[in-house]
Design brief:
The complex is a heterodimer of chains A (386) and B (223).
Chain A (H helix, E strand, L loop, with lengths): L1 H47 L4 H8 L14 H14 L4 H7 L2 H91 L5 H32 L8 E4 H19 L2 E4 L6 E4 L1 H17 L6 E8 L3 E7 L23 H5 L6 H11 L3 E6 L5 E8 L1
Parallel strand pairs in A: 2-4
Antiparallel strand pairs in A: 1-3, 4-5, 5-7, 6-7
Chain B lengths: L2 E12 L6 E12 L3 E5 L6 H8 L7 E6 L2 E2 L5 H11 E4 L11 H11 L6 H10 L15 H14 L4 E5 L7 H17 L3 E6 L2 H4 L4 E6 L2 E4 L1
Helix pairs in contact in B: 3-5, 4-5, 5-6
The chains are: A alpha+beta (386), B alpha/beta (223).
């Protein structure tokens, strides 16, 4: 930057010096010509009037009216007298300009001055434009810097959030474990009391087994969740058949649906290979299907429909179950959120199925949302990029 | 939470004294960087006016909009236009593509206006993402609504703005195309670390956001 400024100053000084030098040179030439012209006129006059030689030379030397004997010829009068004589014999300023090389030099002088001025102005304009361009460039670079800073901050925040997530996950999990543990503990304490009938003892034992299996299934969910949440699981997308992935999920839930008398069906569609992690994506389908079966009455139908969109595959899972109240729609994809309907309260579940589904889909560039099924129940709409 | 955009006591009234419409009525909200926020409300609830002011398209009667801590209405119109062009990408319900320019030209236009060099690879990547790479020479008039909105999405993404503001982006689309455009927008924005604020009256679409702000009569009622 400083160096450029120096260069610019140097250039200006150079132009100025050259202009001055040329100007002085031209002036010097002009003075020489005027001097020689005077000498020529003096020679002619002296030859014409040899008797007045001294007086004429004095006039040419600049010692005019003052030293002259005639007071009428003081400067202003002399000038007007001279002009009158010129006029009388038809000699004008134009003739004077064209008579000698002085005119040419004056023209050259004028050209040099104009040229210099023009060059200087052009230079100033250009440097102004240049500095504006460089200002814009600086702004843009600052912008880019800010952008990359933003990206960096985002990454940092994601990392910090992950850490935060892990902490809150531990809290959430311990909270979830509390209830079954407490009731298990109570069962054992009551079972110890001596005045229980055989039937009552059996009942408590049964209850204990139930709680233990609940704990077991919770633990299964938690270990899955923890691995996904703490980034220990990386999804491995591969170009795999969507139909196969879907069949895997349907297979796992089919018996449950059959036992409950729910008609689970997949509408025919032409299979596609799309990039996805088959194992985890099947888990997503399973979670949604499991809910559909869990919250639907027997005799109802669960339908899976696959539609090919321009750049996504859309998977719709429609049931005729209890539906999702609109006040809860925003919450059902949150971790450990469970609905308020009595059917949900009584059913087993940990409130992570849909949360996991959303996480897994979004990590693969897909989405999930729910809308009411016009005939009652709900319709979960899943997308996966092709 | 790091906020990238904030409104402070924003007010915009329309109409005369007897018949005042309080489009935006002392609204203060904060948008978290890198998140997808949807603003939900019935038509006429003032959400579009709010979004226009958040993007500096419209000046409020009073209140402030801060983007990355900078009060955008302290800028003169010309500077504000430049700021907007660099920081914000807009997506409108009516696409707002220029009919005489082809797909590629429409997408790179804002970058050109800013005097920046077009990152050709990046634009091609976006075009591939939105499935329009074979249509780059097509004029908007020859495209379907869904395709035009994809182009508008690509145009908003291509300049890599920090914030994308979308005003009912799928209002003119059928439900399948809507789903697709939103899915695309959502995954692109999260991939490129941008912040998305979307206005909608459709609760189904709003669900896909990380956060939902509900507006009624110019006021935030739930967020």
């Amino acid at each position: 930057m400083d160096r450029r400024k120096l260069q610019r100053i140097g250039l200006c000084a150079g132009i100025l010096a050259i202009t001055l030098a040329l100007g002085f040179f031209l002036l010097h030439l002009t003075w020489g010509i005027v001097y020689r012209e005077d000498a020529r006129k003096l020679g002619i006059l002296a030859a014409e009037f040899p008797e007045n030689e001294a007086a004429i030379t004095a006039v040419f030397n600049g010692k005019t009216a003052e030293s002259s004997s005639d007071p009428a010829l003081s400067s202003p009068q002399a000038l007007s007298e001279g002009l009158r004589l010129f006029d009388k014999y038809g000699y004008t300023l134009n003739d004077s300009i064209h008579s000698g090389p002085i005119g040419t030099y004056a023209l050259a002088g004028a050209l040099i001055v104009t040229g210099t001025a023009a060059v200087t102005i052009l230079y100033l304009i250009r440097s102004a434009a240049e500095s504006k361009a460089s200002r814009t460039k600086i702004e843009r670079l600052e912008e880019e810097l800010q952008n990359s800073r933003r990206r960096f901050e985002l990454t940092e925040r994601i990392l910090r959030q992950e850490e935060q997530n892990t902490k809150s996950l531990v809290t959430d999990i311990s909270h979830q474990l509390k209830t079954p543990l407490a009731s298990l503990k109570m069962s054992y304490e009551l079972a110890d009391s001596p005045d229980l009938t055989y039937e009552e003892q059996k009942e408590f034992a049964q209850k204990e087994r139930e709680e233990v299996s609940k704990l077991e299934s919770l633990l299964g969910v938690f270990s899955q969740l923890t691995r996904l949440e703490t980034g220990m699981i990386e999804l491995h997308p591969e170009n795999a058949s969507l139909k196969e992935t879907l069949s895997r999920a349907v297979g796992s839930v089919y018996m449950k649906a059959f036992e409950k008398g729910i008609d689970l069906s997949v509408e025919e569609f032409s299979d596609v290979l799309i990039p996805h992690d088959p194992r985890w994506t099947a888990e997503v389908f399973l979670n949604v299907l499991d809910n559909a079966v869990k919250y639907s009455p027997s005799g109802s139908a669960v339908v899976i429909r696959v539609t090919e969109l321009t750049s996504y595959m859309m998977i719709e899972i429609t049931d005729q179950g209890i539906g999702v109240p609109s006040s809860e729609i925003q919450n059902i994809f949150k971790r450990f959120y469970r609905g308020n309907a009595p059917e949900v309260k009584h059913a087993e579940g940990s409130g992570v199925g849909l949360y996991l589904a959303r996480r897994i889909l979004e990590q693969q560039g897909g989405t999930i949302c729910v809308k009411p099924n016009p005939g009652g129940g709900s319709c979960f709409v899943l997308t996966l990029p092709k | 939470m790091k906020k990238i955009l904030e409104t402070q006591n924003l007010v915009k009234y329309y109409g005369s004294q007897n018949n005042v419409v309080k489009a935006v009525d002392h609204t203060s909200l904060q948008i978290e960087a890198g998140k997808f926020t949807s603003i939900v409300g019935r038509s006429g609830s003032g959400k579009s006016t709010l979004l226009h002011m958040m993007g500096g398209l419209d000046r409020p009667d009073s209140g402030k909009v801060l983007i990355e801590g900078k009060d955008i209405f302290s800028l003169k119109d010309e500077k504000l236009a430049v700021f907007r062009r660099r920081k914000i990408g807009f997506i409108f319900q009516s696409y707002n593509l220029i009919p005489s320019l082809n797909v590629w030209e429409n997408i790179v236009l804002p970058i050109g206006l800013d005097g920046r060099k077009v990152d050709q690879d990046f634009v091609r990547e976006i075009l591939a993402r939105i499935g329009m790479e074979e249509k780059i020479h097509a004029l908007p008039g020859t495209l379907s609504g869904g395709q035009q909105q994809r182009v508008a999405v690509a145009r908003a993404l291509a300049a890599r703005p920090a914030i994308i503001l979308a005003d009912e982006p799928t209002g003119n689309l059928d439900s399948k195309t809507e789903l697709e455009v939103i899915s695309m927008l959502k995954s692109c924005v999260s991939e490129y670390g941008q912040t998305l604020v979307m206005i909608t009256h459709d609760e189904t679409i709003a669900q896909m956001a990380d956060r939902i702000i509900v507006i009624e009569d110019g006021k935030v009622v739930r967020s």
